[in-house]
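Worked problem 6 (solution included).
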Amino acid sequence: MQRWIRQLPAALGLSAILVLPACVTINVYFPAADAEKAADKIIDEVWQLKNKPSSQDAPAQAPASVPAK
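Solution. The predicted structure is:
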């Protein structure tokens, strides 16, 4: 029993060392307005790519000839 009582402070100290860091919380806040603007920009770019006719769908155009001088 006395041996257990002598080891108690060391056990409590070790427990505190292990438990206290687990209580630390790191909060990272993202500005909602900036995140929403970025999302809108990405969505607009995706829709532009989707609505743009691809080179396969576009009619073939002859290159413009440059008159010689």
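Discussion: The chain has a mean pLDDT of 75.
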